[in-house]
Amino acid sequence: MDNPACTDILKVMEHDSDILIVGGGLNGPALALAAARAGLSSTVIDALPEPTRKNAAFDGRAYALALASVRLLRNLGLWERVAENAQPMLEIKVSDGRAGEGPSPFFLHFDHAEIEEGPMGHMLEDRFLRRALIEAMSGEPLIAQVSNDMVTAQEMGATGVSVTLASGKALAGRLLVGADGRGSGTAVRAGISRTGWGYGQTALVAAIEHALPHHGIAHQFFMPSGPLAILPLPGNVSSIVWSETDATAARFAALPDAEFMEVLRPRFGDFLGDIKLRGRRYTYPLSLTVANSFVALRLALIGDAAHGMHPIAGQGLNAGLRDVAALAQVITEAARRGEDIAAADVLGRYQQWRRFDTATLAMATDLTNRLFSNDNAFLRAARDLGMGALGQLPALRRGFIREAAGLTGELPALMKG
Ligand SMILES: Cc1cc2nc3c(=O)[nH]c(=O)nc-3n(C[C@H](O)[C@H](O)[C@H](O)COP(=O)(O)OP(=O)(O)OC[C@H]3O[C@@H](n4cnc5c(N)ncnc54)[C@H](O)[C@@H]3O)c2cc1C
Fold first, then answer.
1. Residues 6+ apart with CB under 8 A from 193
2. Which atom from ligand 1 is nearest to the alpha carbon of 284?
3. Chain-wide mean pLDDT for the chain?
4. Considering only Cβ atoms within 10 Å of each terminal Cβ, which end of the chain, N or C, has fewer?
Protein backbone atom coordinates (compact mmCIF):
# COMPACT_ATOMS: atom_id res chain seq x y z
CA MET A 1 0.00 0.00 0.00
CA ASP A 2 2.97 2.33 -0.43
CA ASN A 3 2.09 5.43 -2.31
CA PRO A 4 4.74 7.79 -3.60
CA ALA A 5 2.26 10.67 -3.50
CA CYS A 6 1.80 10.26 0.27
CA THR A 7 2.28 13.53 2.11
CA ASP A 8 1.74 14.92 5.59
CA ILE A 9 0.43 18.27 4.30
CA LEU A 10 -3.01 16.66 4.36
CA LYS A 11 -2.82 16.23 8.14
CA VAL A 12 -3.85 19.83 8.55
CA MET A 13 -6.35 20.01 5.70
CA GLU A 14 -10.09 20.51 6.36
CA HIS A 15 -12.23 17.82 4.73
CA ASP A 16 -14.87 18.93 2.22
CA SER A 17 -16.59 15.59 2.80
CA ASP A 18 -15.86 12.16 4.25
CA ILE A 19 -15.65 10.51 0.82
CA LEU A 20 -14.47 11.87 -2.53
CA ILE A 21 -15.99 9.77 -5.32
CA VAL A 22 -14.46 10.08 -8.79
CA GLY A 23 -17.18 9.08 -11.28
CA GLY A 24 -20.87 9.91 -11.29
CA GLY A 25 -21.92 7.04 -13.60
CA LEU A 26 -23.95 4.33 -11.82
CA ASN A 27 -21.81 2.87 -9.05
CA GLY A 28 -20.39 6.19 -7.77
CA PRO A 29 -23.84 7.71 -7.05
CA ALA A 30 -25.08 4.43 -5.54
CA LEU A 31 -22.16 4.47 -3.09
CA ALA A 32 -22.79 8.13 -2.16
CA LEU A 33 -26.44 7.29 -1.39
CA ALA A 34 -25.50 4.20 0.63
CA ALA A 35 -22.91 6.19 2.63
CA ALA A 36 -25.43 8.99 3.30
CA ARG A 37 -27.73 6.46 5.00
CA ALA A 38 -24.95 5.98 7.56
CA GLY A 39 -24.45 9.75 7.99
CA LEU A 40 -21.28 9.91 5.87
CA SER A 41 -20.93 12.82 3.44
CA SER A 42 -19.66 12.49 -0.15
CA THR A 43 -18.63 14.66 -3.06
CA VAL A 44 -19.31 12.98 -6.42
CA ILE A 45 -17.24 14.36 -9.30
CA ASP A 46 -17.98 13.60 -12.95
CA ALA A 47 -16.20 14.81 -16.06
CA LEU A 48 -19.47 15.09 -18.00
CA PRO A 49 -22.11 17.81 -17.59
CA GLU A 50 -25.24 16.68 -15.73
CA PRO A 51 -27.64 17.40 -18.66
CA THR A 52 -25.53 15.09 -20.88
CA ARG A 53 -25.72 12.24 -18.35
CA LYS A 54 -29.45 12.80 -17.78
CA ASN A 55 -30.23 12.85 -21.51
CA ALA A 56 -32.39 9.81 -22.36
CA ALA A 57 -30.23 9.03 -25.43
CA PHE A 58 -26.94 9.13 -23.45
CA ASP A 59 -26.61 5.34 -23.10
CA GLY A 60 -28.66 2.68 -24.91
CA ARG A 61 -28.05 -0.15 -22.49
CA ALA A 62 -30.70 -1.93 -20.48
CA TYR A 63 -29.47 -3.81 -17.44
CA ALA A 64 -30.44 -7.24 -16.21
CA LEU A 65 -30.54 -6.32 -12.52
CA ALA A 66 -30.25 -9.38 -10.30
CA LEU A 67 -32.67 -9.74 -7.39
CA ALA A 68 -29.86 -8.77 -4.95
CA SER A 69 -29.29 -5.50 -6.90
CA VAL A 70 -33.02 -4.76 -6.87
CA ARG A 71 -32.97 -5.19 -3.08
CA LEU A 72 -30.09 -2.71 -2.84
CA LEU A 73 -32.00 -0.15 -4.94
CA ARG A 74 -35.07 -0.73 -2.76
CA ASN A 75 -33.06 -0.22 0.44
CA LEU A 76 -31.64 3.03 -0.97
CA GLY A 77 -35.16 4.34 -1.79
CA LEU A 78 -34.39 4.20 -5.51
CA TRP A 79 -36.61 1.35 -6.56
CA GLU A 80 -39.83 3.36 -6.22
CA ARG A 81 -38.37 5.87 -8.70
CA VAL A 82 -37.79 3.21 -11.40
CA ALA A 83 -40.17 0.31 -10.64
CA GLU A 84 -42.84 1.29 -13.18
CA ASN A 85 -40.24 1.09 -15.96
CA ALA A 86 -38.77 -2.24 -14.86
CA GLN A 87 -39.69 -5.60 -16.40
CA PRO A 88 -39.55 -8.73 -14.18
CA MET A 89 -37.39 -11.48 -15.68
CA LEU A 90 -39.33 -14.69 -15.13
CA GLU A 91 -37.43 -17.18 -17.26
CA ILE A 92 -34.09 -17.44 -19.08
CA LYS A 93 -33.61 -19.68 -22.13
CA VAL A 94 -30.09 -20.41 -23.35
CA SER A 95 -29.36 -22.15 -26.66
CA ASP A 96 -26.75 -22.65 -29.34
CA GLY A 97 -27.65 -21.36 -32.81
CA ARG A 98 -26.62 -20.09 -36.23
CA ALA A 99 -28.17 -17.26 -38.26
CA GLY A 100 -31.23 -18.50 -40.15
CA GLU A 101 -31.19 -21.95 -38.51
CA GLY A 102 -33.02 -21.20 -35.27
CA PRO A 103 -31.92 -22.55 -31.88
CA SER A 104 -30.46 -26.04 -31.45
CA PRO A 105 -32.77 -28.64 -29.82
CA PHE A 106 -30.56 -28.65 -26.71
CA PHE A 107 -31.18 -25.67 -24.50
CA LEU A 108 -31.16 -24.62 -20.90
CA HIS A 109 -34.28 -23.30 -19.26
CA PHE A 110 -34.24 -21.43 -15.96
CA ASP A 111 -37.62 -20.61 -14.41
CA HIS A 112 -37.95 -18.29 -11.41
CA ALA A 113 -40.70 -20.60 -10.08
CA GLU A 114 -37.88 -23.01 -9.05
CA ILE A 115 -36.76 -20.62 -6.29
CA GLU A 116 -38.98 -19.14 -3.58
CA GLU A 117 -37.64 -15.54 -3.69
CA GLY A 118 -39.62 -14.46 -6.80
CA PRO A 119 -38.32 -13.12 -10.16
CA MET A 120 -34.54 -13.64 -10.48
CA GLY A 121 -34.17 -10.06 -11.62
CA HIS A 122 -35.59 -7.11 -13.53
CA MET A 123 -34.64 -5.45 -16.79
CA LEU A 124 -34.22 -1.67 -16.51
CA GLU A 125 -33.05 0.82 -19.14
CA ASP A 126 -30.02 2.95 -18.31
CA ARG A 127 -31.93 6.19 -18.91
CA PHE A 128 -34.29 5.48 -16.00
CA LEU A 129 -31.62 4.27 -13.57
CA ARG A 130 -29.12 7.05 -14.30
CA ARG A 131 -31.76 9.79 -13.93
CA ALA A 132 -33.08 8.28 -10.67
CA LEU A 133 -29.56 8.20 -9.20
CA ILE A 134 -28.82 11.82 -10.12
CA GLU A 135 -32.18 13.04 -8.79
CA ALA A 136 -31.83 11.08 -5.55
CA MET A 137 -28.37 12.61 -5.01
CA SER A 138 -29.78 16.11 -5.56
CA GLY A 139 -32.28 15.56 -2.76
CA GLU A 140 -29.65 14.34 -0.27
CA PRO A 141 -28.00 17.06 1.88
CA LEU A 142 -24.97 14.84 2.62
CA ILE A 143 -24.07 14.62 -1.10
CA ALA A 144 -22.39 17.37 -3.13
CA GLN A 145 -22.13 16.97 -6.90
CA VAL A 146 -19.47 18.44 -9.15
CA SER A 147 -20.14 18.01 -12.88
CA ASN A 148 -18.29 18.95 -16.05
CA ASP A 149 -14.95 18.91 -14.21
CA MET A 150 -12.31 16.22 -14.29
CA VAL A 151 -10.03 14.89 -11.57
CA THR A 152 -6.48 15.31 -12.87
CA ALA A 153 -4.38 14.64 -9.75
CA GLN A 154 -4.70 13.00 -6.34
CA GLU A 155 -2.62 13.15 -3.20
CA MET A 156 -2.79 10.71 -0.32
CA GLY A 157 -1.78 11.57 3.26
CA ALA A 158 -1.75 9.98 6.69
CA THR A 159 -5.20 11.28 7.65
CA GLY A 160 -6.73 12.44 4.40
CA VAL A 161 -6.76 12.62 0.61
CA SER A 162 -7.09 15.48 -1.84
CA VAL A 163 -7.88 15.75 -5.53
CA THR A 164 -7.24 18.51 -8.03
CA LEU A 165 -9.75 19.16 -10.78
CA ALA A 166 -9.12 20.41 -14.33
CA SER A 167 -10.70 23.74 -13.28
CA GLY A 168 -7.94 24.14 -10.69
CA LYS A 169 -10.31 23.51 -7.77
CA ALA A 170 -9.04 21.26 -4.95
CA LEU A 171 -11.17 19.02 -2.71
CA ALA A 172 -10.22 17.11 0.43
CA GLY A 173 -11.72 14.06 2.15
CA ARG A 174 -10.88 11.02 4.27
CA LEU A 175 -11.41 8.30 1.64
CA LEU A 176 -10.96 8.44 -2.15
CA VAL A 177 -13.17 6.11 -4.22
CA GLY A 178 -12.43 5.39 -7.88
CA ALA A 179 -15.78 4.81 -9.67
CA ASP A 180 -14.38 6.18 -12.90
CA GLY A 181 -14.96 3.18 -15.16
CA ARG A 182 -12.78 0.77 -17.13
CA GLY A 183 -9.85 3.08 -17.80
CA SER A 184 -9.83 4.32 -14.18
CA GLY A 185 -7.40 7.23 -13.89
CA THR A 186 -7.77 6.96 -10.10
CA ALA A 187 -6.23 3.47 -10.27
CA VAL A 188 -3.48 4.59 -12.67
CA ARG A 189 -2.50 7.55 -10.45
CA ALA A 190 -2.33 5.20 -7.44
CA GLY A 191 0.01 2.87 -9.36
CA ILE A 192 -2.50 0.01 -9.47
CA SER A 193 -1.86 -2.21 -12.49
CA ARG A 194 -4.54 -4.22 -14.33
CA THR A 195 -4.96 -7.64 -15.92
CA GLY A 196 -7.02 -7.92 -19.07
CA TRP A 197 -7.38 -8.15 -22.81
CA GLY A 198 -9.68 -7.08 -25.63
CA TYR A 199 -12.13 -9.63 -27.04
CA GLY A 200 -11.97 -8.40 -30.61
CA GLN A 201 -15.75 -8.18 -30.23
CA THR A 202 -18.13 -5.23 -30.16
CA ALA A 203 -21.67 -5.29 -28.75
CA LEU A 204 -24.43 -3.85 -30.91
CA VAL A 205 -27.21 -2.63 -28.63
CA ALA A 206 -30.73 -1.55 -29.60
CA ALA A 207 -34.36 -1.75 -28.48
CA ILE A 208 -36.59 -3.88 -30.70
CA GLU A 209 -40.39 -3.78 -30.85
CA HIS A 210 -42.14 -7.08 -31.63
CA ALA A 211 -45.68 -8.14 -32.48
CA LEU A 212 -45.98 -10.91 -29.86
CA PRO A 213 -45.52 -10.65 -26.06
CA HIS A 214 -42.23 -11.90 -24.57
CA HIS A 215 -43.87 -13.17 -21.33
CA GLY A 216 -40.88 -11.94 -19.31
CA ILE A 217 -38.54 -14.49 -20.95
CA ALA A 218 -34.90 -13.59 -21.64
CA HIS A 219 -33.11 -15.45 -24.45
CA GLN A 220 -29.41 -15.99 -24.97
CA PHE A 221 -28.45 -17.42 -28.40
CA PHE A 222 -24.84 -18.47 -28.62
CA MET A 223 -23.70 -17.92 -32.21
CA PRO A 224 -20.20 -18.63 -33.61
CA SER A 225 -19.12 -14.98 -33.74
CA GLY A 226 -20.62 -14.05 -30.38
CA PRO A 227 -23.78 -14.22 -28.27
CA LEU A 228 -27.11 -12.50 -29.03
CA ALA A 229 -29.14 -11.69 -25.93
CA ILE A 230 -32.82 -10.75 -26.30
CA LEU A 231 -33.92 -9.24 -23.01
CA PRO A 232 -37.53 -8.31 -22.12
CA LEU A 233 -38.51 -4.68 -21.45
CA PRO A 234 -41.99 -3.43 -20.49
CA GLY A 235 -44.56 -3.87 -23.29
CA ASN A 236 -43.79 -5.71 -26.52
CA VAL A 237 -40.20 -4.46 -26.53
CA SER A 238 -36.87 -6.24 -25.99
CA SER A 239 -33.31 -4.98 -25.67
CA ILE A 240 -30.72 -6.78 -27.78
CA VAL A 241 -27.05 -7.15 -26.89
CA TRP A 242 -25.53 -8.66 -30.02
CA SER A 243 -21.79 -9.36 -29.89
CA GLU A 244 -19.93 -9.68 -33.19
CA THR A 245 -16.28 -9.53 -34.20
CA ASP A 246 -15.11 -5.89 -34.35
CA ALA A 247 -14.97 -5.77 -38.15
CA THR A 248 -18.43 -7.30 -38.64
CA ALA A 249 -19.95 -5.11 -35.91
CA ALA A 250 -18.46 -1.98 -37.54
CA ARG A 251 -19.96 -3.06 -40.86
CA PHE A 252 -23.42 -3.73 -39.37
CA ALA A 253 -23.33 -0.53 -37.30
CA ALA A 254 -22.70 1.50 -40.45
CA LEU A 255 -25.76 0.08 -42.24
CA PRO A 256 -28.93 2.18 -42.54
CA ASP A 257 -31.67 1.05 -40.10
CA ALA A 258 -33.65 -0.99 -42.67
CA GLU A 259 -30.57 -2.95 -43.79
CA PHE A 260 -29.49 -3.45 -40.19
CA MET A 261 -32.87 -5.05 -39.49
CA GLU A 262 -32.39 -7.33 -42.52
CA VAL A 263 -29.18 -8.76 -41.02
CA LEU A 264 -30.69 -8.98 -37.54
CA ARG A 265 -33.90 -10.79 -38.60
CA PRO A 266 -32.43 -14.26 -39.38
CA ARG A 267 -30.45 -14.15 -36.13
CA PHE A 268 -33.36 -12.91 -34.00
CA GLY A 269 -35.79 -15.45 -35.51
CA ASP A 270 -39.57 -15.11 -35.79
CA PHE A 271 -40.69 -16.40 -32.38
CA LEU A 272 -41.83 -12.88 -31.38
CA GLY A 273 -43.55 -12.13 -34.73
CA ASP A 274 -42.68 -9.07 -36.80
CA ILE A 275 -39.84 -6.94 -35.39
CA LYS A 276 -38.88 -3.30 -35.85
CA LEU A 277 -36.24 -0.95 -34.46
CA ARG A 278 -37.17 1.45 -31.63
CA GLY A 279 -34.86 4.45 -31.32
CA ARG A 280 -31.09 4.70 -31.78
CA ARG A 281 -28.50 1.95 -32.11
CA TYR A 282 -25.35 1.89 -29.93
CA THR A 283 -21.98 0.08 -30.00
CA TYR A 284 -19.75 -0.93 -27.08
CA PRO A 285 -16.26 -2.44 -27.62
CA LEU A 286 -15.76 -5.42 -25.29
CA SER A 287 -12.79 -6.16 -23.08
CA LEU A 288 -11.82 -7.75 -19.79
CA THR A 289 -10.00 -5.56 -17.25
CA VAL A 290 -9.51 -6.39 -13.57
CA ALA A 291 -7.50 -4.16 -11.22
CA ASN A 292 -4.71 -6.10 -9.54
CA SER A 293 -5.70 -4.52 -6.23
CA PHE A 294 -9.06 -2.98 -5.30
CA VAL A 295 -7.48 -0.81 -2.58
CA ALA A 296 -4.44 1.37 -1.90
CA LEU A 297 -3.59 3.93 0.77
CA ARG A 298 -6.96 5.64 1.63
CA LEU A 299 -8.35 4.49 -1.71
CA ALA A 300 -10.91 1.91 -2.91
CA LEU A 301 -12.00 1.03 -6.44
CA ILE A 302 -15.60 0.04 -7.23
CA GLY A 303 -17.59 -0.99 -10.32
CA ASP A 304 -15.90 -1.06 -13.72
CA ALA A 305 -12.90 0.79 -12.27
CA ALA A 306 -12.25 -2.42 -10.31
CA HIS A 307 -13.53 -4.95 -12.88
CA GLY A 308 -14.87 -4.59 -16.42
CA MET A 309 -16.16 -7.84 -17.90
CA HIS A 310 -17.89 -9.31 -20.96
CA PRO A 311 -21.67 -8.63 -20.85
CA ILE A 312 -22.38 -12.29 -21.75
CA ALA A 313 -23.89 -13.01 -18.33
CA GLY A 314 -25.20 -9.47 -17.66
CA GLN A 315 -23.25 -9.31 -14.40
CA GLY A 316 -21.00 -6.20 -14.63
CA LEU A 317 -23.26 -3.71 -12.91
CA ASN A 318 -24.53 -6.34 -10.49
CA ALA A 319 -20.93 -6.96 -9.41
CA GLY A 320 -20.39 -3.19 -9.10
CA LEU A 321 -23.48 -2.76 -6.92
CA ARG A 322 -22.21 -5.58 -4.73
CA ASP A 323 -18.95 -3.62 -4.32
CA VAL A 324 -21.06 -0.62 -3.33
CA ALA A 325 -23.00 -2.59 -0.71
CA ALA A 326 -19.85 -4.26 0.68
CA LEU A 327 -17.78 -1.04 0.85
CA ALA A 328 -20.70 0.87 2.39
CA GLN A 329 -21.00 -1.84 5.04
CA VAL A 330 -17.32 -1.95 6.04
CA ILE A 331 -16.98 1.84 6.27
CA THR A 332 -20.31 2.20 8.11
CA GLU A 333 -19.24 -0.38 10.67
CA ALA A 334 -15.90 1.43 11.09
CA ALA A 335 -17.64 4.80 11.53
CA ARG A 336 -19.99 3.31 14.17
CA ARG A 337 -16.98 2.00 16.09
CA GLY A 338 -15.44 5.48 15.90
CA GLU A 339 -12.63 4.23 13.64
CA ASP A 340 -11.02 5.83 10.59
CA ILE A 341 -13.20 4.81 7.59
CA ALA A 342 -10.12 4.64 5.33
CA ALA A 343 -7.86 2.67 7.71
CA ALA A 344 -5.87 -0.08 5.99
CA ASP A 345 -7.67 -2.88 7.84
CA VAL A 346 -11.11 -1.46 6.94
CA LEU A 347 -10.25 -1.28 3.24
CA GLY A 348 -8.50 -4.66 3.53
CA ARG A 349 -11.83 -6.19 4.61
CA TYR A 350 -13.48 -4.73 1.48
CA GLN A 351 -10.75 -6.12 -0.74
CA GLN A 352 -10.97 -9.54 0.90
CA TRP A 353 -14.74 -9.58 0.48
CA ARG A 354 -14.87 -8.54 -3.16
CA ARG A 355 -11.65 -9.15 -5.07
CA PHE A 356 -11.58 -12.96 -5.22
CA ASP A 357 -15.33 -13.16 -6.02
CA THR A 358 -15.14 -10.62 -8.84
CA ALA A 359 -11.95 -12.01 -10.36
CA THR A 360 -13.63 -15.45 -10.42
CA LEU A 361 -16.77 -14.01 -12.04
CA ALA A 362 -14.74 -12.09 -14.63
CA MET A 363 -12.81 -15.26 -15.53
CA ALA A 364 -16.04 -17.30 -15.73
CA THR A 365 -17.56 -14.81 -18.19
CA ASP A 366 -14.30 -14.91 -20.17
CA LEU A 367 -14.36 -18.72 -20.34
CA THR A 368 -18.05 -18.84 -21.30
CA ASN A 369 -17.41 -16.42 -24.16
CA ARG A 370 -14.46 -18.49 -25.41
CA LEU A 371 -16.35 -21.76 -25.15
CA PHE A 372 -19.45 -20.49 -26.95
CA SER A 373 -18.17 -17.88 -29.45
CA ASN A 374 -16.82 -20.38 -31.98
CA ASP A 375 -17.99 -22.91 -34.53
CA ASN A 376 -15.71 -25.80 -33.59
CA ALA A 377 -17.79 -28.96 -34.24
CA PHE A 378 -16.38 -30.82 -31.21
CA LEU A 379 -17.00 -27.92 -28.79
CA ARG A 380 -20.44 -27.39 -30.27
CA ALA A 381 -21.41 -31.03 -29.65
CA ALA A 382 -19.87 -30.97 -26.16
CA ARG A 383 -21.69 -27.81 -25.08
CA ASP A 384 -25.02 -29.06 -26.50
CA LEU A 385 -24.57 -32.29 -24.54
CA GLY A 386 -23.58 -30.31 -21.46
CA MET A 387 -26.64 -28.09 -21.72
CA GLY A 388 -28.90 -31.11 -22.25
CA ALA A 389 -27.44 -32.87 -19.19
CA LEU A 390 -27.54 -29.74 -17.00
CA GLY A 391 -31.18 -29.25 -17.91
CA GLN A 392 -31.92 -32.66 -16.34
CA LEU A 393 -30.38 -31.78 -12.96
CA PRO A 394 -32.83 -29.67 -10.92
CA ALA A 395 -30.42 -29.02 -8.02
CA LEU A 396 -27.72 -27.70 -10.35
CA ARG A 397 -30.29 -25.69 -12.27
CA ARG A 398 -31.54 -24.08 -9.05
CA GLY A 399 -27.91 -23.27 -8.20
CA PHE A 400 -27.58 -21.39 -11.51
CA ILE A 401 -30.84 -19.51 -10.88
CA ARG A 402 -29.68 -18.44 -7.40
CA GLU A 403 -26.33 -17.36 -8.91
CA ALA A 404 -28.12 -15.29 -11.60
CA ALA A 405 -30.30 -13.74 -8.88
CA GLY A 406 -27.13 -12.74 -6.99
CA LEU A 407 -28.15 -14.72 -3.91
CA THR A 408 -24.99 -16.80 -3.44
CA GLY A 409 -21.90 -15.99 -1.35
CA GLU A 410 -21.71 -13.57 1.60
CA LEU A 411 -24.49 -11.04 0.94
CA PRO A 412 -23.96 -7.48 2.23
CA ALA A 413 -26.74 -6.20 4.53
CA LEU A 414 -28.09 -3.83 1.86
CA MET A 415 -28.70 -6.82 -0.44
CA LYS A 416 -30.56 -8.97 2.07
CA GLY A 417 -34.34 -9.35 1.74
C1 LIG B 1 -23.35 -3.91 -23.90
C2 LIG B 1 -23.30 -3.99 -22.41
C3 LIG B 1 -24.38 -4.54 -21.72
C4 LIG B 1 -24.35 -4.62 -20.34
N5 LIG B 1 -25.39 -5.22 -19.69
C6 LIG B 1 -25.33 -5.40 -18.35
C7 LIG B 1 -26.39 -6.08 -17.65
O8 LIG B 1 -27.36 -6.53 -18.24
N9 LIG B 1 -26.29 -6.22 -16.31
C10 LIG B 1 -25.21 -5.75 -15.62
O11 LIG B 1 -25.16 -5.94 -14.38
N12 LIG B 1 -24.21 -5.09 -16.24
C13 LIG B 1 -24.24 -4.91 -17.58
N14 LIG B 1 -23.22 -4.24 -18.22
C15 LIG B 1 -22.12 -3.66 -17.42
C16 LIG B 1 -22.47 -2.24 -16.94
O17 LIG B 1 -22.87 -1.45 -18.04
C18 LIG B 1 -21.25 -1.59 -16.26
O19 LIG B 1 -20.76 -2.47 -15.29
C20 LIG B 1 -21.64 -0.26 -15.59
O21 LIG B 1 -22.16 0.64 -16.53
C22 LIG B 1 -20.41 0.37 -14.92
O23 LIG B 1 -20.79 1.55 -14.23
P24 LIG B 1 -19.69 2.42 -13.44
O25 LIG B 1 -20.49 3.46 -12.70
O26 LIG B 1 -18.78 1.55 -12.66
O27 LIG B 1 -18.79 3.08 -14.57
P28 LIG B 1 -19.15 4.14 -15.80
O29 LIG B 1 -20.60 3.96 -16.09
O30 LIG B 1 -18.14 3.85 -16.78
O31 LIG B 1 -18.96 5.55 -15.10
C32 LIG B 1 -17.71 6.15 -14.94
C33 LIG B 1 -17.92 7.66 -14.82
O34 LIG B 1 -16.66 8.23 -14.43
C35 LIG B 1 -16.52 9.47 -15.08
N36 LIG B 1 -15.07 9.79 -15.10
C37 LIG B 1 -14.07 9.09 -15.68
N38 LIG B 1 -12.89 9.66 -15.43
C39 LIG B 1 -13.13 10.76 -14.67
C40 LIG B 1 -12.32 11.77 -14.09
N41 LIG B 1 -10.98 11.76 -14.21
N42 LIG B 1 -12.90 12.76 -13.37
C43 LIG B 1 -14.26 12.78 -13.19
N44 LIG B 1 -15.06 11.84 -13.72
C45 LIG B 1 -14.52 10.85 -14.45
C46 LIG B 1 -17.13 9.26 -16.47
O47 LIG B 1 -17.56 10.48 -17.04
C48 LIG B 1 -18.31 8.32 -16.14
O49 LIG B 1 -19.53 9.02 -15.96
C50 LIG B 1 -23.21 -4.14 -19.62
C51 LIG B 1 -22.13 -3.58 -20.30
C52 LIG B 1 -22.17 -3.52 -21.69
C53 LIG B 1 -20.99 -2.93 -22.43
1. 291, 292
2. 53
3. 91
4. C
